[in-house]
Amino acid sequence: MTDAVRYEREGDVALILIDNPPVNALGHAVRQGLWQAVDRFADDDARIAVILGEGKLFLGGADISEFGKTPLEPHLPDVCTHIERCPKPVVAAIHGPALGGGCEVALGAHYRLAMQGARLGFPEVHLGLIPGAGGSQRMPRLTGVGPALDMMPAGGSVSAEQALKIGLVDRVATGDVRAEGLRFAQDLLADGAGPRQTGALPCPAYDAEAFDAARALWTKKARGEVAPLVAIDAIEVATKLDYDAGVKEERRLFFSLMETPQRAGMIHAFFNDRKVSKLPELDGIAPRAVDSVGVIGGGTMGAGIATACLLAGLPVTLVERDEASADKARATIAGYLSAAVKRGKLADAAPVLARLKTVTNYAELGPVDLAIEAVFEDMGVKKDVFARLDAVMKPGAILATNTSYLDVTEIAAATSRPSDVIGLHFFSPAHVMKLLEVVVPDTTAPDVTATAFALAKRLKKTAVKAGVCDGFIGNRILATYRGAADRMILDGASPWEIDAAIKAFGLPMGPFEMGDLAGLDIGYMTRQRKAATRDPRDVVPTWADEMYHEGWLGQKTGRGYYTYADRKGTPNEAILPMIDAARGDRPQRTFTPEDIQRFYMAAMVHEAAKVVGEGIAARPLDVDVTLLYGYGFPRWRGGPLHWADSVGLPALLADIQSWAETDRYFWQPAPLLQQLVAEGRSFSDLN
Ligand code: COA
To answer: What's the 122 CA to ligand 1 centre distance in angstroms?
Structure first.
């Protein structure tokens, strides 16, 4: 037996305890230990065995850090079969999450007990995979194909109670898992229960309608992601082949996915999710306590931020300029909360709303621990707000700005306590979007940054640290790839071709659809703001200015790049003369979807390389996480810099250099990209 698996006896019952912190992943030592424990049980005089997981989880699944390495024996499917073929009964007693391979071990056992609060699920598709140790063959044999089709393509899970209902477990209990596991084992012995092999059950019935519906749903939903559809194929295999043949086919499908860039992209994203908040400079720095929050401004952003804080259990004091605006903000927040109730995300809005206080006087912010300003994006207005906050807030309180591009160092300088000032850039709608850019001027105290990361965790958001520059990480990169899209329009592509190509790449929306959704006045304002300092060589989308003057601001006015008789929109061809005028006598060319993707992505990577090179993002992974959580970049591509590594940096740089011959201004070389190519390295080397 290995250290990760212990074998104990309680009378007639053998206990097999898996202890592999932090998540009981099924690494080599656990697989080997389980195998040996089953052998020992088979050989001794115990009459029944109970498998238990120590710690928070039953079993967290295959050990992801082993993926991509040569797998060591015993392999997980063989371990599950070894358990199943044990001549004496084996029970899985599940007290916490049984995920992926962990659920497959449970399905290899002959009986399953789930404690209240346990969850059983197959999250493999989130890693670009499908169950690979018999899960897709055993689960439908127990539950029929319906529940498996609901769970596996979605990477979902079910509660203990739901698992009982669909036949995935045999009993649900409360209390101590060891005691209940022993009780279940004794009951089984009393009933004379023997080993019951799920793999020996007949094939589940094929249900053409259910498979057609699942394929139609996931073709639409997966947007280029392959694993959900392969999961459906694997479930279908269970309806056609006997268990041994089925599990072989499942394994073949599993390994075909293991080889894909999608698997690599999603595992990159998985580890980044965890690395992104691990900042060496915050090691050992305790965050300040935040038990109450102030929000200044109750517009879309302020109301969203307040909602996010309220939902996290924090009391919020929201300041507006007058009673009417305060009432409006309260109504907006109440609307967000009732929408959350309708979506089943919240049971009752009333106690959440009771934590909100709307006021018209800054003095009310005196006692709060942290205030987040979300007023109009204008330096003068922001400085005025910060001077007022400085006057009323208690010492040690944190003053945060939600600006999306302004200089946070300058805002901090408007106070007597710049070390307490930080940027917290939320994304709209702030109570839904996962990303929080934490913008850290050099003047900010480390424990203020640590507090921002702790707050993000509490709000269930993913925080990325960014340095100060126009647009920080995300909006700065966005401005560049939007610029690339405008250049392609001038060279002959239509906005609709660009949107279609970008969606085909895997983003939920193209840049022009996105513009219509956000409001085209935003882009107009940005161009106005930058007009005074704009380089004469830069391209200005004059057609977009004309659209603004026509009042075509996108969805909110029913017309933008698309016209919106319904929500989907159809191309607004009335903009073509405006575009033609902007093109003038510029030579025109046609663009294939691949041309568009190449140009757009190169612009994204190129700016990202500058953002990393200048230290605005500490590591390439910070860019990848930002684009994934704030800008709809497809998770299965890992992030733009992971994607860049996967296509090869020399080819990207060669493209950029060739475009620089005609547009040197836009394609000014990113030193970091040149350096990486010269050294034969990739972005991942810097993570
Ligand atoms: N294999 C290897 N390491 C794993 C792992 C796995 N299956 N699941 C989690 N870990 C690691 C994490 O990387 C993290 O390591 P770190 O502390 O060095 O950063 C640590 O375990 C804790 O994980 P974390 O996600 O921070 O803990 P949590 O309690 O919030 O969540 C899980 C636990 C299991 C729900 C979550 O980690 C998860 O979803 N894991 C993936 C499960 C999965 O997909 N299994 C099927 C694999 S085919």
So the answer is: 14
3-state secondary structure of 222: helix
Taking the centre of ligand 1 as the mean of its atom positions, its distance from the CA of residue 61, in whole angstroms, is 9
Residue nearest to atom 16 of ligand 1 (CA): 274
Residue 111's alpha-carbon distances to 48, 51, 77, 97, 188, in angstroms, are 11, 10, 18, 17, 9
Fold of 474-686: N-(1-d-carboxylethyl)-l-norvaline Dehydrogenase; domain 2 (1.10.1040)
Architecture of domain 5-259: Alpha-Beta Complex (3.90)
Q: What is the mean pLDDT of the chain?
A: 96
Residue extents of the structural domains in the chain: 5-259, 290-466, 474-686
Contact by Cβ (8 Å): 147, 138 = no
Q: For ligand 1, what atom is nearest to the CA of residue 60?
A: 34
Helix (H) / strand (E) containing 242: none
Rounded mean pLDDT, 17-39? 97
Helices (H) and strands (E) in the chain, counts: 28, 21
pLDDT of residue 684: 97
Phi, psi of 653 (to 5 degrees): -65, -40
Residue 501 has pLDDT above 90, yes or no: yes
Q: What angle do CA 98, 101, 105 make, to 5 degrees?
A: 75
How many A from CA of 445 to the centre of ligand 1?
31
Q: pLDDT tens, 637-675? A: 999 999 999 999 999 999 999 999 999 999 998 999 999
What CATH number was assigned to the domain covering residues 290-466? 3.40.50.720
Q: What's the half-sphere exposure (Cβ side, CA atoms, 13 Å) at 627?
A: 30
Average pLDDT of span 265-272:
96
pLDDT tens for each residue of 111-164: 999 999 999 999 999 999 999 999 999 999 999 999 999 999 999 999 999 999
- The Cα 125–Cα 247 span in angstroms is 18
